[in-house]
Write a structure and sequence with these properties.
heterodimer; A: alpha/beta; Rossmann fold; GMP Synthetase, Chain A, domain 3; 2 domains; 6-stranded antiparallel sheet; 5-stranded parallel sheet; 21 strands; 32% helix; B: 64 residues; 2 helices
């Protein structure tokens, strides 16, 4: 007997919600303005941090009558501002809008850049947060009959919790790999036969490596889609290719920010990620001047979430560099496309002899060098003459140690030819560099600050 | 059904749920009806409607 939780008509739809996903730009901008005005009123009335910020800037919500007003007059907010606002009376302090009666979850950022930011999520906002994933799942053909494997320990990282909420919204099946070793997870996948893997790109590759060690070919497994978040990789062509080959699957990524939301699910054409514009607004600006950049130019993504009610994030500095394109995509969506996903970080930018170099660009180039594993580290040091970059890479297991010198020379030559800067390469034996279950630490900044 | 008709029907359902919860039958039933209201709010949101920002604090479609 056939069973389905959705009607045949809905199952045949190429969109989760065609109404907003294909809305024309004028209507989308009207929707943005209404939701921004509502959010500003909410924050001004309920969040002391925002009231002080806007009072100081000499604005009230009523002054914002257009998106141009919003872009020009509303001040941006950084993570450290929210952390400071929380400090007075943790966990939420002056940054929170709601009490514990309403909040359902408490998460936090990793604290890798200082004190962790506490993140509240209400029951209702967990549905919106999850739905941003559902948009992405649906777009690539995943349906309620699919089964999603989570090799995730259900800690305080909101990212894959929100993916779980997305699977619930879709109505699909969750297979939990929590509390298991990588080997146990690989074997569980073979036994339970899920169709989708949700993991960081780094961990998907680490699982594939473990499987190879065990003599298991994951390309022959039941997984047909791998979906990633937490770090760039799913939109770095060489990394994506490595994952797709290892898993015998199509690979997509979602761009999310734990304290804001799972803001941009992947384009099914694998050209980048689409901002879920019914749930957030992006101002893409020059990180130095704060002025909006032209369509198609790289700038910092300042994000405003309509779904983080408990601790609003309004013109929130992500420090992520994106190339935003506002036109109807080949997939049919009108939502803003961040071409290539997140291209880099404003705080990870390296300048070598006047040339800007981004770690994701280096990652993409390394992927073109035969004989390397996908694991690497970038070390940057600052000298009077500018930044110096060195890369640690791993040789693939089938490369003999006496070939490491050749590999180093080939890698340095290719990096010079493609990135136009000298980058030192150190080749390590396979398995030397650390493996990560969540976000990988690949960028090591030794410059004096 | 047109979008506008759907919006009107969903809005009416929210008003009905709010009336039913004026004198709750039990915590269990009240919570279930509040969740039903939350999902109606979500459907209106998906249709681009301007609603109170969180149905957890406002039932029946009141503005914030």
């Amino acid at each position: 007997m056939s069973q389905s939780i959705l009607s045949p008509k809905s199952l045949a739809s190429p969109y989760w919600n065609a109404y907003t996903e294909t809305m024309d730009r004028e209507q989308l901008d009207q929707l943005h303005l209404r939701r921004i005005q509502m959010l500003l009123r909410w924050a001004y009335e309920r969040v002391p941090f925002y009231r002080r910020l806007y009072d100081k800037a000499g604005i009230t919500p009523a002054d914002i009558r257009s998106l141009d007003d919003f872009d020009r007059h509303v001040p941006a907010v950084d993570k450290k501002d929210l952390v400071e606002a929380q400090q007075g009376s943790p966990p939420w302090g002056d940054a929170g809008a709601l009490t514990e009666d309403v909040n359902l979850f408490r998460f936090q950022t990793s604290g890798s850049t200082g004190v962790p930011l506490a993140i509240p999520v209400t029951y209702y906002s967990s549905h919106h947060y999850g739905e941003q994933w559902t948009y992405g799942f649906w777009a690539v053909g995943l349906r309620p009959h699919d089964t999603f494997y989570f090799p995730f320990n259900w800690g305080t990282f909101a990212g894959f919790w929100s993916a779980y909420w997305g699977v619930r919204r879709l109505g699909a099946t969750v297979h939990s790999g929590g509390g298991l070793s990588t080997e146990q997870r690989v074997k569980q996948i073979l036994e339970w036969k899920p169709t989708v893997l949700l993991a960081t790109p780094t961990y998907a590759l680490a699982m594939a490596e473990k499987a190879r060690d065990l003599g298991i070919d994951l390309a022959a497994s039941s997984i047909r889609v791998t979906y990633h978040a937490g770090e760039p990789g799913g939109n770095v062509p060489t990394t994506r290719r490595a994952i797709e080959e290892a898993w015998g699957a199509k690979t997509y990524e979602l761009y999310g920010i734990a304290e804001v939301g799972a803001i941009a699910p992947g384009c099914p054409l694998q050209t980048g990620v689409h901002l879920a514009e019914d749930q957030s607004y992006a101002s893409v600006v020059d990180p130095e001047t704060g002025r909006p950049v032209a369509d198609g130019e790289v700038g910092e993504n300042l994000i405003t979430s309509y779904i983080q009610f408990a601790q609003p994030t309004i013109k929130y500095r992500t420090h992520d560099l994106v190339r935003a394109v506002r036109r109807r995509c080949g997939c049919g969506r009108t939502w803003m496309l961040f071409e290539g996903g997140v291209l880099g970080r404003t705080d990870h930018m390296i300048i070598i002899k006047g040339t800007n170099v981004y770690p994701t660009a280096v990652e993409a180039l390394l992927g073109d060098i035969a004989g390397l594993t996908p694991h690497y580290e970038i070390h940057v040091t600052g000298e009077r003459t500018g930044d110096t970059l060195a890369v640690k890479v791993e040789a693939a297991p089938d490369v003999p140690a006496d070939r490491y010198g050749d590999l180093k020379r080939r890698a340095e030559q290719l990096l010079y030819e493609r990135a136009f800067v000298r980058i030192g390469v150190e080749v390590e034996p396979p398995g030397t560099l650390p493996r990560y279950e969540l976000k990988a630490k690949r960028f090591f900044d030794h410059r004096p600050h | 059904m047109t979008r506008d008709t759907l919006v009107d029907e969903l809005t009416a359902l929210r008003r009905t749920l709010a009336l039913l919860n004026e004198d709750p039958w039990s915590p269990a039933v009240e919570r279930s009806l509040r969740l039903a209201d939350m999902y109606l709010h979500l459907a209106l949101w998906q249709l681009g409607e301007l609603e109170a920002i969180t149905p957890e604090l406002t039932q029946g479609g009141e503005t914030p």
